Amino acid sequence: MIKDITIGFLGCGNVGSGVWRLLEGFGEDIAHRAGLRFHIKKVLVRSLDKQRGITFPEGVLTIKPDDVLNDPEIQMVVEFLGGEQPAYDWMLRALNNGKTVVTANKVAFALHWHELQKAAKKQEVGLYYEAAVCGAIPIIHSLEESLQANRIDKIYGIVNGTTNYILTRMSKNAEDYSLVLKDAQRLGLAEPDPAADVEGLDAAYKLSILASLAFHGRVPFEDVYVEGITHISKEDIRCGQELGYTLKLLAIAKRNGLEVETRVHPTFIRSDHPLANVSGSFNAVYLHGHACKEMMFLGRGAGDMPTASAIVSDLERAASACQHQYPTFQNELNPRVALRHNTDWQCPFYIRMLAKDAPGVLSRVAKCFADENVSIAAVQQNGQRNNGRVALVVITHQASEKAMQRAIAALDQDIAKLESIIRVEEE
Amino acid sequence: MIKDITIGFLGCGNVGSGVWRLLEGFGEDIAHRAGLRFHIKKVLVRSLDKQRGITFPEGVLTIKPDDVLNDPEIQMVVEFLGGEQPAYDWMLRALNNGKTVVTANKVAFALHWHELQKAAKKQEVGLYYEAAVCGAIPIIHSLEESLQANRIDKIYGIVNGTTNYILTRMSKNAEDYSLVLKDAQRLGLAEPDPAADVEGLDAAYKLSILASLAFHGRVPFEDVYVEGITHISKEDIRCGQELGYTLKLLAIAKRNGLEVETRVHPTFIRSDHPLANVSGSFNAVYLHGHACKEMMFLGRGAGDMPTASAIVSDLERAASACQHQYPTFQNELNPRVALRHNTDWQCPFYIRMLAKDAPGVLSRVAKCFADENVSIAAVQQNGQRNNGRVALVVITHQASEKAMQRAIAALDQDIAKLESIIRVEEE
């Protein structure tokens, strides 16, 4: 006995086309195995004329949102629009019209999770979002249904393929940022306007979702500290490599009791850490739970078919669920759980300066750190002079973010000019 | 509103104690978050006197299986006995008595999955087994509910922590097998009788489960080719390293149409492959699906708390399921799917010989390979003579297993004595 499910698409770009093709090519397997057959009744597009490499049956394409949102036959809506609006409004309308929503939209979801979930719960329909974070990697579902017996205290994610591709090339071939970015754009691995990726925003949306789910409490996007990779020089990457570190744009979330820190920034990690070997456009999420201990998920974080893999898996789960689950990111059973946001985290720091090559300089630099109780773990001075200046690299022990910022502010730039400061995670 | 669930344990060793402690320490969190509270009513043990580091309430421990199996109050039975019997009989009885079963037992499960699932279906109760494969890693649940939209064609698993620990030490420190094994036994990482691990059987049970699930068809344990690591020399590991390979005990399953090959054996993989960096007692499963592409799961494959993490997650899922799912490893909707077992797989081979250092030897060796259509990719001859013999290492291109065995059989051992033959996977 096969159950028929009628679905509608909001948007049909890269990923939407991937879902169409996956259901076309693999739909019979799903029907035979799971007893589910998906019919795509309507696909909302901006233009009926655009070439998509797909032959849609007569009448499927539409430019009217209501054809998807108000059709009572459509049971599930898959949203591929991206961005906050109109995606959020339309998802909300779909839910309020009693339709299950499956989305790949990290922005609208990170910003409006609570409202969307409320609507879904009220209507007793499903809300699925595996594809919004890390493409094919089943990290959402694993956090929801496989790691629930854990107090998760740490998440390190490489959740943006574009920046990981750029940093991998810069690391392996000692290439310049701007050159690799241009190449990535040419290859379709970076957008014409790369800001959302290279400035870390994309990663921050995903981290907000991951941390909320892992910590069972709301971790708003606005609370995530964000720093991108646009200022990264190959010089820093090389210095780090010599010290045994690999540079990654990490999305970091830590929980200690009710205190939570969330930050996205370039990070030096030990080169033998499993994340250090995650190269190119791959994504990975590394986490630690009090029972499961260390765990890592690695896979394709983007691309039409990998993302479609997550979407269709959500469709199948939604269709076989006889009761949808709503993760308790706002804990109704235990309202005392109110996470506190910590902005003064502790970590070691890597600082590269151009220092005057004169007696007493190191001591004056060291004093700035000592005055703020920042303890130095290693100092490396590069012999090569450049206009009477030498490169001075300092690695600190664990230090408070704010103390470190004060120490840096106190540096006499005439004596030691700050070139870069990069946070380190020792694991 | 909190739902109370009464459970019973069959056995209470390392993992059972872990589950007890996890529920004791984290049970309130689960109650608050998921609205579920688990009560452990009975724990079957062999001896009431054994010290377990846990203070059980009066009357919980029992030596009578019926106290668990026949108690109508017990809704779920968790099985920790290990081994085929009596675990299988008792799980079957629990299911037939209308109890959901959660098990960590790869042996009983791999051998009797079909019968257990039949009983579970008939009684409409759950049968959960995440902990049977790779401890905390949610590979079972991911195959069941996150990767269903994929035609999975390849699985490479490092699914046995003991052998991975031994091979990692042999690789990193050039230590001898027997010495590392003794150390592993001393550290509790290998059993006093290590046969099931080092001879590859443990991995083969797990592979049978993984492959059945991934390929949606029965892949019996008996069909898995098994070769352990007892014959591995540090000499081979070193030769492989020089050629850019790392040695791992891989559990390999491949599917091509309806043809399936499953094998567990020491394998050379490229040292930059993600699996090559999985070190110590970690487990990992690397797979490829037609939509998700490459994916890897890494984590703790054993240990009390990691395994307990998987068990308690299964308990939660079982308790919140309003309808249990039964993976279609025997495809009822499409009975035409009958997987065929292929024993003549293709792969490159590494062969190390001690060859006579005399004119014409290489040509005679090469002829044995050529006669069987085995094409040579690389030859390395070690200059050092030993009793008039030199080490000769040959790497072949893709070759058929059977052709390779015939080529080896045709070698004149007086001319080139076979020292070792190790399969290679190029990815």
Strand content range of chain A: 25-35%
Low-pLDDT regions of chain A = none
> What is the largest interface, and how many residues per chain?
A-B, 60 and 60 residues
- Helix-and-strand structural type of chain A: alpha/beta
Descriptive overview:
2 copies of one chain form a homodimer. The first copy, chain A, has 427 residues and is of the alpha/beta class. Chain A folds into 3 domains: 3-135 and 306-320, 3-Layer(aba) Sandwich (Rossmann fold), CATH 3.40.50; 139-300, Dihydrodipicolinate Reductase, domain 2; 346-425, 2-Layer Sandwich (Alpha-Beta Plaits). In chain A, 35% of the residues lie in helices and 27% in strands. Chain A has 13 helices and 19 strands. Chain A has helices at residues 14-34, 65-69, 87-96, 106-123, 139-145, 161-173, 177-186, 195-198, 201-215, 234-242, 304-320, 361-371, 401-409, and strands spanning 3-10, 36-44, 61-62, 76-79, 100-103, 127-128, 152-158, 225-226, 245-256, 259-270, 282-289, 293-300, 340-341, 346-347, 349-356, 376-381, 389-396, 399-400, 416-425. In chain A, the strands form 3 sheets. In chain A, strands 7, 8, 9, 10, 11, 12, 13, 15, 16, 17 and 19 form an 11-stranded mixed sheet that branches. In chain A, strands 3-2-1-4-5-6 form a 6-stranded parallel sheet, sandwiched between helices. In chain A, strand 4 (76-79), helix 3 (87-96) and strand 5 form a beta-alpha-beta unit. In chain A, helix 1 (14-34) crosses helix 11 (304-320) and helix 6 crosses helix 7. The first copy, chain A, is elongated, with a radius of gyration of 24 Å. The termini of chain A are far apart.
